[in-house]
Amino acid sequence: MPTSADASPAIGDRRVALVTGAGRGIGRGVAVRLSREGYRVALTARSEDELRVTADLCAGETLVLTADLLDPAAPDRLVDEVEQAWGPPSVLVANAGEGLSAPIARFPDDVWERQLALNLTAPFRCVRRVVPGMVDAGWGRLVVVASVAAKRGEPYIAGYTAAKHGVLGLVRSVAAELARTGVTANAVCPAYVDTAMTDGSVATIVAQTGRSPEEARRILERKQPIGRLITVDEVVDAVWFCVVNGGVSGQGLNVDGGAVQG
After folding, report:
1. Are residues 189 and 150 in contact, defined by beta-carbon separation less than 8 angstroms?
2. What digits encode the pLDDT tens for the residues 154-186?
3. 39 - beta bridge partners?
4. Per residue in 88-107, pLDDT tens?
5. Of 180, 169, 70, which is closest to residue 134 (Cα–Cα)?
6. CB 74 within 8 A of CB 67
7. 90: helix, strand or coil
8. How many of the other CB atoms lie within 10 Å of CB of 179?
9. The 252-255 sheet, strands edge to edge
10. What is the pLDDT of residues 204-258, one digit of tens each?
C-alpha cells in the first residue's frame, strides 16, 4: 500500500479533509487517522460534545462544525466554512447515517423518507458541493461509508437498504463522470461493526424478540463468516486505502468478513 507521503501528490498544503458523522464510531476513527496522516480535518455531526472528544484525539488542526445533514442547506454551509478557514477539501468522507427498522407492511412514510434523506440525499449534496474544488485542483478523494446492505437485501431495513444501494450507485456514477479529472469516488461497505449503531441494533432485537443482549449480539456476530463484529480500525483502513490509491475508483469495498463475495 502507498505510504502517507503518496496520499496527496502535488497538492502541497491542500491536505484538507471533511468527515461527516465524525462524533463517534467509524467517523471518529477516520478523522483521527486522517489527522495522523497529516490532514487538517473538519469534523461535523450533530453533537458538539462528541465532536470535541474527536478533536482532542486528533493529531493536528481540526474544525468543529455542528450540523444536521437533514437540513438541505447544511452541506453548502459546512464546505463554505472549511474553504474560508483552509481552502477547498481534497478529501470528503461521507460517513453520517443511521438505520431504522420496521416490517415492510408497516414501514412508515416518515421513516422511509428520513432514511433516504440521511443515507443518500445528504451524501449526494456533500459530494455535489466539494467536487468543483477537487476538479479545479486536479486531485480529490470522495469516500462514502455505505454498508453491505448496498450489496444485498436485509429484512426489516428496507429504507436503509434502498438508500445504501442508491448511494453505491451515486458513487459509481460520479466515478465514471470524473474518471479523467484526478478525482476518485468509492464506497466502503462494512458489515456489522462494533459501534454504538450496532448497539442500537442489539437493543432493537432485544425489544422485539425478548432475547438477552448477549444472544442478540451473537446473532449479529454470526452474520459475518468470521464469527465476530468488524472493528472500527478495519473500516478505517479501507477508507485510507481509498484515499491513497488513485487507481481505485467506482468501487464498493466490502469489509464484512467474507459475507458478500463480489
Report:
1. yes
2. 889 999 999 999 999 999 999 999 999 999 999
3. none
4. 999 999 999 998 888 999 99
5. 180
6. yes
7. coil
8. 13
9. 62-66, 40-45, 16-20, 91-94, 140-145, 183-190, 252-255
10. 777 777 888 888 888 878 887 888 888 999 999 999 999 999 999 999 999 999 9
Single-letter amino acid code for the residue at 87: G
C-alpha cell at 87: 481552502
Query: Which amino acid does the sequence have at 25?
Result: G
Site of grid cell 496520499: 7
Confidence category of residue 13, pLDDT binned at 50, 70, 90:
low
Q: Are strands 140-145 and 91-94 parallel, antiparallel or unpaired?
A: parallel
Q: What is the pTM of this model?
A: 0.90
Is 160 marked active-site?
yes
User: Scanning the structure block, which residue is given the C-alpha cell 488542526?
Assistant: 61
Listed by start position, the domains of the chain span 14-190+231-251, 192-229
Contact between residue 83 and residue 9 where contact means Cβ atoms under 8 Å apart: no
CATH 3.30.110.40 at 14-190+231-251, yes or no: no
